[in-house]
Amino acid sequence: MFLELRTSGHRDGHIERVLRKKRNSQTVVKYVKSEATIDFVQDIAPSEPTTAPEEPLEPPQTHFWWFAPSDYTTTIMNMPDVAVARILEYLDFKEIFTLRKVNHGFRGFIDHSYPSLNLTNLHISATPQRIIMVYNLTTHVEYQLDRYGCIVIQDAKKTFVEGSSFLETFLEDLEYVLSRQKGILEALQLEWRTQSLILTPWDEQVNSIFNAFQQFLGARKKPLRVQKLLINAYTQHHVIALLRHFDPKFTKEIQIFVTCLDAREEVFELSELVELESHWNNLEQVVMRRKISQNDFHYFTKIREVSVIVQEVSLGSLVFLKETLTLSPTFRKFTLEIKCFRLPRRSLLDLYGPPNVEENERRSFYFRIPDDSMLLKMSIDPFESVLSFFRIERAELPKFAYVQN
Is 346 exposed, middle or buried (0-12, 13-18, 19+ CB in 10 A)? Predict the structure, then answer.
């Protein structure tokens, strides 16, 4: 039974009295807007018969649509592209690199949606059986030779890549890194190792890596910004293949090392390398652990710090270095490691007089630098077969040391 009251002839207080009188019964209040009335509908008692049964009201919703059962499981592979791209923005390089190993489709999506990297260091170490890439000195990715494909190890987790050699898998990742790198690399190090003195097969593999490097760098819209290049180079062409794609305003240091056990005893040619004048003239430090010709000394006299290896050095080359470095405004240190140390002592005494003998048994000569308060120091260590030139302050001059013009 329903009781319907019209408020057009009653006060609101009457409605409140009816509500208090029936407070123990289940009450549903419904306000129906009309032009002059508001209907009040009350369920008198559940036990009384009703002449107009009302359909039960639906209980209030206690769950939302995302808790509802689904016919499929949501994974990152079936999420909308916009959502996945948004997630990728919160991942660092290490996590992105791991996700690229999921499958080819997801790798393509990441490469398209994650356009830039800002690595600070990249170190590549390769042998005939494996290649290791180290990112920012902390993230290690290893590519191992496998009979049926390639094994990739990252964070102690192994992933098998079927149908792709370890060199192919490595080059795919290398292309991704070089094409996405936007920041300045403080150091790029390339290291090739082998335990064999027979290098022919390994030479071909290393050459293929250098060719890929040159291809990937050449495809970039802007030159790679690298401050320091450390490289085990067979020939000057290996250095040129990289250096010509670097921004010369940023490259300040080059270190070139031997490549294997035979130490590559042939002389490392520099003629084509120094033709990259915009790169070479901006260098501040050069370390050559490969032998160079003493006829190439003049290539280094404008560089701030130099360390090179030569088979031998003549007295004429020594005089050239002394005179040239004395006039160089940029020079600070020049070190020669001499494989065959044959500087005649008598000739040095005749040329420069008696040396100053230091505590470490080194013999040193001091020379004035025209129009400068600093001095040029020439130091000879016969036991280490090292000859060095330094630009020093006058305060560093030992007592009783003789200074020549």
Answer: exposed
Question: What are the C-alpha distances in Å from 275 to residues 221, 281, 293, 298, 384?
Answer: 23, 10, 17, 13, 33
User: Contact 84/109 with Cβ under 8 angstroms?
Assistant: yes
Average pLDDT (145-169) is 86
Positive or negative torsion for Cα 65, 68, 72, 78: positive
C-alpha of 158 from chain center:
22
The model's pTM: 0.72
Sequence ranges of the domains in the chain:
75-115, 119-292
The yes-or-no verdict on residue 197 having pLDDT over 70 is no
Helix 81-88 / helix 104-113 crossing angle, nearest 10 deg: 70
Distance CA 31, CA 28 (A): 10
3-state SS assignment for residue 272: coil
Query: Rounded distance, CA 13 to CA 17, Å?
Result: 6
Check pLDDT > 90 for residue 306.
yes
Dihedral angle of Cα 81, 85, 86, 87, to the nearest 10 degrees: 100
Can you read off the two tokens belonging to residue 142? 């290893």
Phi, psi of 323 (to 5 degrees): -70, -40
